[in-house]
Amino acid sequence: TAEIGSVIIFPGTMSVIIFGYIGGILVDRRGPLYVLNIGVTFLSVSFLTASFLLETTSWFMTIIIVFVLGGLSFT
């Protein structure tokens, strides 16, 4: 539906762009292992939060997806 595309997926896509840029800067300054640890932490916390709070609004799931895709762009 239109809600899935515009409200949930689009912010996640924008987060990949932003987190990818930030991740590139951090790799240059701190190294790849530091950025990998941040990415794995984002993924772990986001998936654990989503698993405990499944019956929430689409806005909350949008926030979780932003951090999941941000973590994926760091890893």
Automatic annotation (TrEMBL):
Q: How does it sit in the membrane?
A: Multi-pass membrane protein
- Entry keywords, A to Z: Membrane, Transmembrane, Transmembrane helix, Transport
The record's annotation in SUPFAM superfamilies points to: MFS general substrate transporter
Protein name in the entry: Tetracycline resistance protein TetL
**Major subcellular location class:** membrane
Q: Would you tell me the Gene Ontology cellular component terms?
A: plasma membrane
Q: Give the organism the record lists.
A: Streptococcus suis
Keyword Cell division in record:
no
In terms of PROSITE patterns, this protein maps to:
MFS
Location of the Major facilitator superfamily (MFS) profile domain: 1-75
Molecular functions (GO terms): transmembrane transporter activity
Enumerate the transmembrane spans.
6-27, 34-52, 58-74
Q: Where in the cell is it found?
A: Cell membrane
Gene name, Swiss-Prot/TrEMBL: tetL
